[in-house]
Design a protein that fits this description.
Strand content: under 5%
Radius of gyration: 15 Å
Distance between the termini: 37 Å
Largest sheet: none
Oligomer: single chain
Number of strands: 0
Structural class: mainly alpha
């Protein structure tokens, strides 16, 4: 089963606009920002951390 996950992961990476999957540290950086005082004035905002996968109109 692990091999199937690797194949699916490679397919997902190839389909991503960045051509790779996100690193955990990239997601952690965004979470750390949102938990910090720097984000105190943010409200009602979606922060997409998807490597450009979601297309917006």
């Amino acid at each position: 089963m692990k091999r199937r996950g690797v194949v699916i992961g490679l397919a997902a990476a190839a389909a991503a606009p960045a051509g790779r999957l996100l690193e955990p540290s990239e997601v952690a950086t965004a979470v750390a920002y949102l938990a910090s005082p720097l984000a105190a004035s943010m409200s009602g905002t979606d922060l997409l951390i998807d490597g450009g996968s979601v297309k917006t109109a």
